[in-house]
């Protein structure tokens, strides 16, 4: 017992060292008579004092070796957590509750020796104790250390030899004192306040475990077949209402006429399956708990979680080869679709953010896409629908038939990729909208910020910027506006160039994009403006900052290079620095420049505000 106590690390504390030493010895004893006979066939050792130990006793040597191995293992650096090394965790037995045990205190010599042993490595500490108490020669110490798993016994002995023993004392006499006797112990009570804190913490953990176990044991059955929904995991009143088809809200057919701001909240429920309770239940269940087979998509910045309460039903009916349910919770429009053949395990769920939608942006929702064609559900206030090519502003709009419930015939959507030879858009009354691969089409406008429209002049500007729209797919775009903010006479009588700014704003408020385009005269009809500058997350060219400044390097027909700059009508002066220097009054500037010159532009409005150029 003394050997195990002395070799164990002093960092465990005396109470833990005592209990761990007892545990090591108990685990080291032979488990039954067979193993006892194997280790000591001729004799069974009894209790011995230090003077009675015999190194030729195989039973004693067997137990000593096992205790030494366990004590050395407790002093090794921490490695893997399992199996735990001795001393890493409190021993399972023996256990003492409410008391702390420790050997009797010794004198100054014993304290100095204990501190010196604590600074040694575990093998050196074992070598010191074995040489002082157990074995008479270094050769025997090295052999026992090697048997216990020490890699370098000679180094351990050399380190142990350096320990300075107090003058006039013997190693063995000090180590055999009461200071190092784990069998003659003193006891004192533990900290009562800390014990109470530990009991309260244990009681709280037990209560939490009981509550979690009760929740996990709640039966997972629902109210009916949930299709592709995952198993229910919890219940509360709000969640149950959001899953109950009877709790769905439905707007009256004329609600949009009385609404302060017509939007999706004033859409009536339409479609031939609005009373199909089983379909609506599946849609609500999949929304709340989409299973692993459900294809879920969401526009950027759109949460895909369950509804906070009973949502509003917008549509439920068959659309081509699918059955579609449209729902609205005040923040998002959600489309649930399942195959029309009845396989409700292959479902799709699409989310689109639509907060603060109004009569201009809540004009239509995509019901389905098939073979490049798109069907829309139009708003109840839409009186006419047509399709026109954005690249052909002079072309006539083609009427688009709608059913009585507002569902359009399939119409070709914009090509996902190609050379941008055409761009079909919806004309819903006096509004233009385009499909950018999301549930809600983006509204298209033209003109100065705050005064945008979709008339013929604006459509003419769109004919030169429409091919920017593919870069806005699946970005959660709410509106896109293009604005011819300046016309500039070119040097040398080369004609008049047009400057355009196209700005896309999102439903989430962040992620806006502004692109400046430069269009030289004499191009073919529908020629696209060259992109000369762009900015992201900038208020430029929008209602918050209704001014813009951009520049371009242009080569005249005569071969001369010019730095051109143009601003919105409120720009009173433009200054160029860097590779080109010059200042001009008014919203346009043209300066001679060298090929490859880079100018830094800055402008001032009539009221003195600084205008930074798009880059």
**Distance between the terminal alpha carbons, to the nearest Å?**
81 Å
Strand % is 25-35%
Molecular shape = elongated
Radius of gyration: 42 Å
| Major β-sheet profile | 9 strands, mixed
Q: How do the strands line up in the largest sheet?
A: 11-10-13-14-15-16-17-18-19
Q: Averaged pLDDT, please?
A: 86
Low-confidence segments, given as residue ranges, are 40-53, 220-224
Helix count from the secondary structure assignment: 14
How would you classify the helix and strand content by structural class? Answer: alpha+beta
Helix content: 10-25%
User: How many DSSP E strands?
Assistant: 26
Q: In words, what does this structure look like?
A:
With 615 residues, the protein is of the alpha+beta class. Helix content is 24%, strand content 26%. It contains 14 helices and 26 strands. The strands form six sheets. The chain has a nine-stranded mixed sheet, with helices on one face. A five-stranded mixed sheet has the order 3-7-6-5-4, with helices on one face. A four-stranded antiparallel sheet has the order 23-22-25-26, with no helix packed on it. Strand 4 and strand 5 (322-328) form a beta hairpin. It is elongated, with a radius of gyration of 42 Å.
